[in-house]
Write a structure and sequence with these properties.
This protein is mainly α and 410 residues long. It is 54% helix and 8% strand. It contains 14 helices and eight strands. The chain has a three-stranded antiparallel β-sheet with strand order 1-2-3. A three-stranded antiparallel β-sheet has the order 4-5-6. Pfam families: Phage_integrase (PF00589).
Length: 410
C-alpha cells in the first residue's frame, strides 16, 4: 500500500497493539487508533492486527480510489456517505487487496476474509460518523441528519455483504476408534511412533491428549504455564487470560482469546503423561534455553517456548504417519489438525449432554463454559448437528414405517 501501513507496538507492560500508520505524516492515524482502542483493546493481538489491516485497506481505498479531495474520513466527518457504486468499489478493493511489499495487491482473498474485511470497514465508517455526531448539539438540525445518514450508511454496507448459503454442518471430529488409533500411535513405546527422540514423543503425546480431552484452543495450549496445572483427583487445568509476558520471546505470542476457566483432566493416563513431561523432560529443555520461563511446552532443540507453527508441524507429521490408510471410519486423515481436536471435544460433549436428556437451552451455556466462548453463535454448529441428526433419524423412521405399511397392504 502507498498511503498506509500497519505496525505493532509492544508497550512496557507487554501489551501488543497494532496501529495504522499514515505514511504521509509517519504518525498513527488518529481515527483508526481511537477505533481500535475503543472497540478492540483487550482482544487477542492477532485479532487486533487483522482488524487494523482491514482499516488500513479501507483508508487506502479512500486515498487512492475514492474521488474526493477530503479523503474517506473527511467525507464522513462532513456527514456525507458513499454511493452504492462507491461501496461496491470498496468491496471489490477489499476482495482483491493484500498488504504486499512494492504496492502489489492482486491476489483474491477467500470469501470469509472478504466478508470480515467488509464488516470491519462498515464498523469503522460508522464509528467515524458517530464520533462526529456526538459533537453536534441535539438542538442542531444537523444532529438528526447525521443519525439518519449513519443508518443509511450501515444499511448500504449491509446490502453489499455477500450472502452465505446455509450449509449442512460437516463433521470435522474424530470418532472414538479414530482417536484410539492416533493415541496408540503416539505411545512413546510404539515402534511406529513417527517422532524419533523419546523426549519429543513424551511431549507430543501430552500436547495431543490435552487438546483431545479438554478441547482447548491452540493459543490456550501454548499460553499454558507450569503453574496452570494442579495434579490431583481429578487434575485441574487453569486456562488464564494474561497480557504478553517479558519471558515470551515469540513474535506472535499465543493468547487466551476468550474466557478464563478451570477444566478437569480426569483421564488418569493423560494426567500421568503430562506429569512425566513436566518432571522429567521439561527441566532438561529449559536448560537449553538458558533463560528462565514458566511456559509449559518448549522446543526440543533449543528449549524455547513452542510456537504455533511448531505444533502445526507436529500434526503434519502425524497426518503423514496415518495417511497410509487414507481414512479411518470415513474421516480423511488430511483433516487431522489442532482445530479438529476442539471439534472432537465439542461434538463429544454435545452428544454426552444430549444423552443426559438436557434441552438445547440447558446445553448451550454448558458448552460455552467448557469451550470458553463468549458468544452462543460459537456453539451453534454443534447444536445444529444434533438437530440434523434427529431430523434425519425421524425421517428415516417415518419412511420405513410408510414402506412397511405399503408392503403389508395396511
Amino acid at each position: 500500500m502507498k498511503h498506509y501501513k500497519v505496525v505493532t507496538a509492544v508497550h512496557a507492560g507487554g501489551e501488543r497493539m497494532s496501529m495504522v500508520i499514515d505514511l504521509q505524516t509517519a504518525r498513527p492515524d488518529e481515527h483508526a487508533l481511537t477505533f481500535l482502542i475503543n472497540n478492540y483493546r483487550g482482544y487477542a493481538p492477532n485479532t487486533i492486527l487483522r482488524v487494523a489491516e482491514s482499516i488500513a485497506l479501507t483508508l487506502e481505498w479512500g486515498a487512492s480510489i475514492l474521488q474526493d479531495h477530503r479523503g474517506l474520513v473527511g467525507r464522513l466527518l462532513a456527514g456525507e456517505i458513499f454511493s452504492a457504486a462507491e461501496i461496491f468499489s470498496l468491496s471489490e478493493f477489499l476482495r482483491t487487496s493484500r498488504q504486499r511489499s512494492g504496492g502489489k495487491s492482486s491476489s483474491v482473498v477467500c470469501a470469509e476474509t472478504h466478508l470480515t474485511r467488509l464488516l470491519r470497514a462498515s464498523e469503522f465508517c460508522s464509528f467515524v460518523m458517530k464520533e462526529a455526531s456526538v459533537r453536534i448539539p441535539l438542538s442542531d438540525p444537523r444532529s438528526k441528519v447525521f443519525i439518519e445518514r449513519i443508518h443509511q450508511l450501515e444499511t448500504a454496507f449491509s446490502d453489499m455483504r455477500p450472502t452465505k448459503p446455509v450449509a449442512i454442518y460437516s463433521v470435522k471430529s474424530l470418532t472414538p476408534r479414530q482417536a484410539d488409533r492416533i493415541l496408540e500411535l503416539l505411545d512413546p513405546e510404539n515402534p511406529a511412533n513417527p517422532f524419533s527422540e523419546l523426549s519429543t514423543r513424551i511431549r507430543n503425546q501430552s500436547i495431543f491428549e490435552l487438546m483431545y480431552y479438554t478441547g482447548i484452543r491452540l493459543g490456550e495450549l501454548l499460553n499454558l504455564r507450569v503453574q496452570d496445572v494442579e495434579f490431583g483427583n481429578p487434575t485441574s487445568l487453569y486456562i488464564v487470560r494474561r497480557p504478553h509476558a517479558a519471558d515470551d520471546p515469540r513474535p506472535n505470542p499465543a493468547q487466551v482469546k476468550r474466557k478464563s476457566r478451570v477444566l478437569p483432566l480426569s483421564h488418569q493416563g493423560a494426567a500421568k503423561h503430562l506429569k512425566e513431561y513436566l518432571d522429567d523432560i521439561r527441566p532438561e529443555l529449559e536448560k537449553r534455553y538458558h533463560e528462565p520461563t514458566s511456559l509449559m511446552f518448549l522446543s526440543i532443540d533449543r528449549g524455547t517456548p513452542l510456537s504455533a507453527r511448531a505444533v502445526q508441524k507436529i500434526f503434519k507429521e502425524l497426518r503423514a504417519a496415518v495417511c497410509d490408510d487414507g481414512d479411518i471410519d470415513g474421516f480423511p486423515m488430511s483433516g487431522l489438525t489442532p482445530m479438529s481436536m476442539r471439534h472432537t471435544f465439542s461434538n463429544d460433549t454435545e452428544e454426552s449432554l444430549v444423552s443426559e436428556g438436557l434441552t438445547e437451552e440447558e446445553r448451550r451455556p454448558i458448552l460455552m463454559q467448557l469451550r470458553g466462548d463468549s458468544s452462543p453463535r460459537s456453539v451453534e454448529p454443534y447444536i445444529q448437528r444434533t438437530r440434523e441428526k434427529r431430523s434425519r433419524k425421524h425421517l428415516i423412521t417415518r419412511q420405513r414405517a410408510m414402506f412397511a405399511k405399503k408392503t403389508t397392504g395396511g
